[in-house]
Amino acid sequence: MAEDMLIIKDLKKYFPTEKKDLYVRAVDSINLTIKKGEVVGLVGESGSGKSTTAYMVMGSYAPTSGKIIFNGQDISIPAKKRPLTIKKNIQIVFQDPGTSLNPQRTVGQILGLPLRVHHIVPNKDMNDRIIKLLDMVGLSEDYMYKYPRTLGGGERQLVAIARALATDPSLLVLDEPTSALDVSVQAKIINTLMNLQKQLGMSYLFITHDMSLMRNIADRIAIMYLGKIVEIAAATDFFQRPLHPYTQMLLSSIPVVLKAEQELKPKRIRSQGEIPSPVNIPSGCRFHTRCPQAGEYCMKEEPSMVEVFNQHFVSCHLYKK
Ligand code: SF4
To answer: Which of 4, 42, 68, 171 measures 20 to 30 Å from 197, CA to CA?
Structure first.
């Protein structure tokens, strides 16, 4: 079995509010591992804490407590204090390529910047490397001289992916990389990402609210709700026997094509209400205000994570060991 590349341990991120002693508990003690070459989908609604988790992995936010270990090294520190080798090894692709690419620079200049900062190639080989990066994402050499504003959304995202690849990272954090794009180009971006992952053996932390997207691309899936991971399993197991009522709710609403998929789908569970505020988290199980199976006990005691099947973990009182 491949070794763990990233270990997230009891990770918390609380943001202060204007009121003393009141915090936005965006991430509230999560545990997650990513192995070498593994694609892990972190799925949840907006406000679940998945992007805050991604930003802590990138070092944009310092954790309130807990640890992030990368290849055996503690990186639970802001990005500016991290060694260059770590920054080089963990890269991110953002949701909106329109805002993540500098409009004043050509694509060649955008791709050249990380190559220079991390001393990836000598100046004389810079153009060849930029052409190679463009080729890896299916763009021709001509793109070097174009500005981001002259490109379509899908092309801009391909440039953003090429920039992330410039430093030859071993972990890519993908923060909803297709959700700002036209449906017509989403499949191309996903195919490019998955081909690159196979060719280069990278690990992906794939942040998304789109459960159906994970079906074909994730090795494992973690479901996040209101700052907590509530279920983790291998993707195959996950779609065959979703355990947590929240997961079942998410799965029951996704469209399926095949009869076999329809048979596996949980019967439609109506979503009750909205995700509560992370400032005012419900007592006991934080999903109890929306859960169709909630009992009195659920409001009092927070469930802990238990392994119900091999490597299939869930946090719900229905599955007490
Ligand atoms: Fe629903 Fe109770 Fe399970 Fe929470 S612990 S998901 S409220 S059944």
So the answer is: 68
| Burial class (CB within 10 angstroms; exposed 0-12, middle 13-18, buried 19+) of 48 | buried
Instruction: State the angle between helix axes of 107-117 and 153-165 in degrees (0 to 180), rounded to the nearest 10.
Output: 20
Q: Which CATH superfamily is domain 4-319 in?
A: P-loop containing nucleotide triphosphate hydrolases (3.40.50.300)
The ligand 1 atom at the shortest distance from the C-alpha of residue 285 is: 4
User: What is the residue extent of each domain of the chain?
Assistant: 4-319
| Residue 41, H or E segment | strand 39-43
Q: Which atom of ligand 1 is nearest to the CA of 286?
A: 4
Structure tokens at 242: 């979703």
Three-state secondary structure call for residue 147: coil
Q: How far is CA 134 from the centre of its chain?
A: 24
Q: 85: buried, middle or exposed (CB in 10 Å: 19+, 13-18, 0-12)?
A: exposed
CA of 154 to the centre of ligand 1 (A): 40
Using one digit for the tens of pLDDT, what is the confidence trace for 108-160?
A: 999 999 999 999 999 999 999 999 999 999 999 999 999 999 999 999 999 99
> 0.85 exceeded by the pTM?
yes
Instruction: Please state, in angstroms and rounded to a whole number, the distance separating the CA atoms of residues 90 and 290.
Output: 36
Question: What is the mean predicted confidence (pLDDT) over 229-249?
Answer: 94
The arithmetic mean of pLDDT across residues 10-28, rounded, is 94
* Cβ neighbour number for residue 140 with a 10 Å cutoff: 9
Ligand 1 center–CA 314 separation, angstroms? 11
253 band by pLDDT with thresholds 50, 70 and 90: confident
